[in-house]
Hints:
The protein is of the alpha/beta class. It has helices at residues 14-31, 38-46, 60-67, 114-126, 148-159, 171-185, 188-193, 211-222, 243-264, 291-306, 325-341, 361-377, 385-388, 390-396, 406-411, 427-432, 438-452, 460-476, and strands spanning 2-3, 33-35, 50-52, 55-57, 74-76, 85-87, 91-94, 102-105, 108-111, 199-203, 208-209, 227-235, 270-273, 275-279, 286-287, 311-312, 345-346, 352-353, 358-360. The strands form 5 sheets. Strands 10, 12, 13, 14, 15 and 16 form a 6-stranded mixed beta sheet that branches.
Amino acid sequence: MFVNNMPRYEILSQDAMAALDRGWRRLVSELGVEFMKPEALDLFRAHGQRVEGDRVFFDPEFVLEQVAKAPREFDMQARNHDNDVHIGGNHMVFSSVYGPPFVRRGNVRRDATMDDYRNFAKLAQSFKAIDSVGGVVAEPNDAPLDSRHLDMLLATFTLTDKIFQGNVVSGVNARDTLAMSDIVFGGRESIEQTPVSISLINCNSPLRWDDRMLDAQFEYSAANQPVILTPFLLMGAMSPVTIPAALVQQIAEALTGIALSQLIRPGCPVVFGSFLSNIDMQSGSPQFGTPESGIGLLCTGQIARYFGLPFRTGGGLNSSQTVDAQAAYESLMTMMPTFLAGTNFVMHSAGWLEGGLVACYEKYAVDVQILEMLQHEFTPLEINEDSLAFGAHEEVGHGGHFLGAAHTMERFRDCFYRPFLSNSDNYERWNRLGARDTTTRAGEVVDKKLDEYEAPAIDSAIQQELEEYVIRRRAELGD
């Protein structure tokens, strides 16, 4: 977990914030938001909101009243308490890529498997910069659809001891996530006191929350597990093409989803979610790592702070089909504003490729390298007599060099960040050692991490109970 003490980069004026505030109020009150779950409609109706069919027309002040019940910051416990995290404030938590049905390793692109999921769990455990294995890091297409979440959860609990994201495909899957969490963490009281999972609840933009996501939201919020209420906005497709319009829609959708969680359980933890980019207006394809998405990301941080909420956005997003310069610069175009905005929970921090369709092994290592370097860059300087190094000038004098100075010799081992992936050999040495490019070296880093991986310790009785639960539930689900 990284603490970002650098100043926030805020680009919205007071007048701009006031205009956005008026915009979301008009959307929720005049057009309303659809909730495709009767229980949600009943809650809003019982609290005085006008409901017509599946649509709720909100009093904006009611929405703000509910949002104010959510905590500004909260803690999460991991199986290994050395990996506990804090969500909110200056803290940044980084999680793996989420949701790809395909994987890429080297030149091979194929369906993801359960072995791939296990491998990415091992990588998340192995890299210190990654705080969470995530959720569906790679969709295991070789496992039965109705029960694969059980195998993923078992792998998550046994191969990692970091926080994780809950399964949100259905209310049933959410209940299984909670039941297995109860086994690992000693019961429902323990996980309600300090949450263990954080789950992504996407809005079916524009202005509709669908039933399957709502089913999961009800389960997690009732159990006091944080949910990330996230509008999925690709400007030109799921929102208007202008950034201000997309921001207004994002506020309307996120705040109404957050209000629902507070009706389910007042005071339960939530995260203001954002996934905002645009489409290519020539092809209609999604684009990532664009200037527009970076601007929207910076605005989102300022907006979330305005409402007093922790927020999620950013990551190593890109549209490239392979691990090339485009993949790197588009990912940096998104990850840099992620840090400038001080994002609290960062999904897709490592492994995202091809617009999120692919979880890539080599890209995972490249992204962790970018992440480590940014964490170093966003660590404030220590400026004191020692770092000013006046004595080194006295020793070296005019026209000398500092390579052998005492100040240098005392610090040369750790005075600069040393990237694990970059290569600074001269051309002759680089060529003599095989002329390995960054992607090749990234693959070697991944292979080494997987070869050296050691599973974190877990109580044998807990592991046996988890395995028995998976076997029983798999049979009950018909797989």
